[in-house]
Fold this protein.
Amino acid sequence: MVIVSAQQKQKIRPQIFILWVAIASIIMMFAGLTSAYIVKSNQAGWQNLAMPQLFLISTIAIIGSSVTLQLAVSSFKKKAVAKFQQLLGITVLLGILFVVLQCFGFKQLWESGIQLKGVAGAGQFLYVIFGLHGLHVIGGIVALFVMLLKAFFGKSKIATNTPIEVMATYWHFVDFLWVYILLFFIWIQ
Amino acid sequence: MSNEATLNDHTTDTNHSEHSDVHHQQQSFVSKYIFSQDHKTIGKQFLITGIVWAIIGGLFSVLFRLQLGFPEQTFPILETFLGRWAKGGVIQPEFYYALVTIHGTVLVFFVLTAGLSGTFANLLIPLQIGARDMASPFLNMLSYWFFFLASVIMLSSLFVHTGPASGGWTIYPPLSALGQSGDGLKIGMDLWLISMAMFIVSSLLGGLNYIATILNMRTKGMSMTRLPLPMWAILFTSILGVLSFPVLLSGAILLLFDRNLGTSFYLSDIVIAGEILPNEGGSAILFQHLFWFLGHPEVYIILLPAMGMVSEILSVNSKKPIFGYMAMIGSMFAICSLGFLVWAHHMFVTGLNPFLGSVFVLLTLLIAVPSAIKVFNWLTTLWRGSIRFTPAMIFAIGFVSLFISGGLTGLFLGNSTIDIYLHDTKFVVAHFHIVMGVASMFGMFAGIYHWFPKMFGRYLNNTLGYIHFWGTIICAYLIFWPMHYEGLAGVPRRYLDLRGWHSFNQFEDLNKLISIVTIIVFAIQLMFVFNFFYSIFKGRKVRVQNPWGSNTLEWTTPINPGHGNWPGEIPEVHRWPYDYGKGGRSFIPQTEPFGADESKDH
Ligand code: HEM
Ligand SMILES: [Cu+2]
């Protein structure tokens, strides 16, 4: 029962594989945080919070950006360069919009009296978890932006699908992660 | 210590000796030795950085052992070098705790995680699976530089005015969360946390790469069941790291918030220096869960690579196939999965629900099964082998000895009822040093002696190697064996002066002995370091391609492989790596096709 795999015939490209392992790792980080949240929410003195509406709007922005990125991928595969550039640009803008909306959401919460200092509660976790998620989004925006610059000004054409597919997988993941943590905060109070 | 490919003009006993001349790659010094993307150079960078940290960590143990062995004595020379940390020649309490903390942190993380996995994963993966380099050489380079950054930050924390972190390597809050609680918990603690965050990024980048490379980049014919055992070990190690380090990162981030932004993740109802803190609702135990969710897998992250290398070295040097290849893989898998489910055995005395405690006792004791299988297989591999006692081999045998002695005391500690008595005593210190600290150091030494010829094209000096081995194993047992008795008698760990307890006066001479032996063993390690650097430049040159008569692919490369490892095609693999002493031949390389009349079994 020996399974022989030739290096030439790889079923999955190493770059995509690396990304999937990285995703597993990021999931563990958020799993650590959300399970800490669950443990603590059962303890005395826990403070709940009301979720600002803004976070629902930012959800629309990030889901929208996932859609546009997916469309960009398929136009890339069809070699529709202009359309690809356009859609990639829109994705970057929507990503930035998401981050801006998150900042406003934080501001609104902060002004409503939910701050970091003092008694334990959902609010403290929210800043940490949403904040860390935001950092992952910002990382994605930077990568998207670099890709956009390459698409417009790059001397050599991007030859393979791999970079854009890796990008899209990551982006859909942070999108999914956002939906997960949002629902988590709404349900577990 | 050249990296360039050299023309290999020696006849060798493998059937892949025709190597064409390789062009010398013209690379600048910077891209070749500093920002190198060649896995072999990165491995050496990890190794040398690890050695530097091992010297620092070892020196620190000498310093705090001076205090433990000779609490009433003054050492004016210490004041000369350390200034106010050793006022009047006596190590100050704050400094003592800083020494212990940094000792534990750097030996566990910087030496035996980065220095061990980083070195041998980088060096061996592409060479043993038959690949030109890692899946992503760039991420690989980043992994080293994040480690370097972590090192610089940790090192800088030694020089800040209030001193480095001093809350123990486990940095439990509330102590570590409150800067007011001591000098070593001020900026030093923040630097510790930032350094560790960088370190975690480094090991994640490394781990991703190791997994992706082992699973995706194997050469033709190299099925998973033909992988040498170090590869399996590194695969499992990386999986453990990739899944558990992020959880420590979460814990560390929350701690940074508590420290600097006034949150209450870990803090509740605290009065410090007469001041009532506003924090409420936090739980210090939460941190312990997050910490030990990494902390326990971490001990296997340290051990597994050593186990893998030891398996390989034992088999090569006893000229026998490793006994129970599949059982070795199966037991590593079992250790790896159970390793995630036992973390609360570090928390038996935290008020953990006793029922939950008994579950963790059961799971912990279950790990003894795969561990015993491995020990059995190593011993059976040695049994009636024609053993060649190279320095690497004796270190590998030493590893087995230490793993047995340290593993047995683990059975005591794994029972919560006994652990309630032994927790935080010197018994624990003895247990984890033998099973994890010294054993893994032995695995690492074995690896260094064995693969040094591949790294630098020269041998380490053998005589110094034997002195190194015998000195170290005797001293290690002299240091840690008596600590079991101290622990059983109730001597607590993390105390810098035991003179207050009359009953512990009986250990006065013993503690002196331990401290003196520590100084001796430290000197022996310096001798090894000398051997290491001397041999890089002046060691005996390697003249044959396959000096140990080994089956694995790394010995089919030129003596000093260039970037890309094989000058021609990557060789194809036809068999598993443990055909030793088969059909009257002492070894049959993996690249050799099956003979017509050869039996297929293994
Ligand atoms: C020269 C060899 C070594 C000696 C003599 C030595 C000695 C000690 C001693 C006396 C302590 C303090 C125990 C106490 O708190 O009372 C200690 C702590 C510790 N050592 Fe070592 N050690 C050595 C090597 C190592 C190695 C190789 C490791 C790597 C795993 C290691 C890891 C630790 C850890 C994790 C701690 C706990 C630190 C803490 O309490 O925060 N040591 N060592
Ligand atoms: Cu453990």
Summary: Chain B touches chain A through 53 residues (CB under 8 Å). The two ends of chain B are 38 Å apart (CA to CA). The pocket of protoporphyrin IX containing FE (ligand 1) is lined by residues B 58, 61, 65, 100-101, 103-104, 107-108, 112, 168-169, 429, 433, 436-438, 441, 479, 493-494, 518, 521 (CB under 6 Å).
